[in-house]
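During the reporting period, our protein records have gained a structure token line. One record among many is quoted in full directly below:
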Amino acid sequence: MVVRALLIGKNPVLESNLIQVLDEISSKFILDKIILDEALPSYEYFEKFDFIFFDDHSCKREWLKFHRKLKPVFLENNVAFFLVLGKTCGKEEIYIALEAGVENILFLPLDISSAINKLKNSQDKKKFFSFYNSKDYKLFFDNSSNPKMFVKRGIVERANHAFFKSANLLNEKSIIGKEFFKLFDFESHQSNSLNMQRFEHQLVKSVEFLNVRLRQNNELFHIRTISVSNRSSKFIAEIHPISKPQKESFKDLYLLTKENYQGHNNIGFSNDYEKLTKRERQVLDLSSKGLPLKEIAQSLGLSKRTVERHRANIMQKADAHNILEAILFFSDSEVRV
């Protein structure tokens, strides 16, 4: 594998040192050079590099504007940015760099051994990120029986065969290249709208959205989004079609979360409720109130394992993938508050 690096600045000694360092990292490497001026290359130019070294030995902070502008590109593509400071740069320069989010700082004259270790550490961090771009993962993604999408910067890059089948869609152009959060109606439910904002601002790594409609054909799904890494706006969306018709009562499904459930404890259940044993009804009722497994077990004087078994029976009788779908299945056509 060829390692690509970029040196920004004109420093023959540093260039020679970096060639020595890169030679220890990989038998095949390319070191490009540019001199910073007002006209920066396109963002795509910087995406291809594994390492970018910015020589600011004069401590003029020319790196700061560059880093601020290109930081999203570095994070998106896992490009390791290295700031190279001269020996005359003081602590203040280091503090500013750290506050700006620069993780890698090298000092002149370059310590070859230290630089090699820092580059190796950056490569180790990249292994997880690179997994999602590997041929093995793409093969798994495309052939998975679970509907999935791969989203980059909010745009759907790929969707697997299982998704198109479950969504009853034949035209890939109707999905690929579209904005993920506009393809589905996330805003019709308060909790989904809130979770969408939490996930978009990377406050959480994973979020579940319930009762989400695909705008193109009104098919209903439960969706789980999972960030590829802490620093990336790439994510995978697992999209599960809802097998049972949804009752109008659960257009306010967000009430099922524990925080929002206070004052909404009287959910009615349909005739299918008679399929359940007395204990299963108790477990279902407490589950519909948003109680976690541990609290249900304590309330009924049961072990957590027994409650799990009752939940499994409930889901089997509802032909549901999870307890929320089971609650949907057994609910009445109205929520009685």
Remarks:
- The chain has a mean pLDDT of 80.
